[in-house]
């Protein structure tokens, strides 16, 4: 189908704002171009207008697309390329993927807290736990995990130790700064795909205590919202397949 001047304008605008073009965008451009233009504005605004560098924006997108709560391959590939083109290193990416692997711990922390509440006056079996030593360096680099691991160790010191080792030694030590790690963790927990209010609160508190500006925190929160368009993409692809199938059957019946 030949595109109008207006459709070409919107396509160029979309690519400039989002950095990609997909079959689903073609479908929506043909059927509802106004949606595509407004989506480009909506999705592009927090990436362009906030204080974070293009490198950091792309790394947040890498985390969100790679997260086990989303796992969107096309977006991950796009933003991996974007991150590297914006100056990120493979070590930055591996640190992001380490944080993605750590995301499941948030549920362990929350579940253990519920267990402690339900036990009430009952004390856990002290034979299982004498606590684990948490050094000042670990506390400074991982303030949220440090406070939660102390509670976890009351129930299972051995597990708490391997968790702490994974957090401390799973990163490369050559990529993200401690502040950048906190911002990625806020993004992962604030995204609608795995929204965890208590984890968001704890990581925001730690970020503010470290002097991270509220504007940077707000930007990583905003970046996750428009990932919901991946559901739109799925629907648009299915819609296009049905339309093409119906048109094909119409031609056959003529």
From TrEMBL:
Matches recorded under InterPro entries: AhpD-like, CMD-like
Superkingdom as given in the UniProt entry: Bacteria
Carboxymuconolactone decarboxylase-like domain span: 33-113
UniProt feature coiled coil, ranges: none
Record-linked Pfam families: CMD
Name used for this protein in its record: Alkylhydroperoxidase/carboxymuconolactone decarboxylase family protein YurZ
Organism: Paraburkholderia unamae
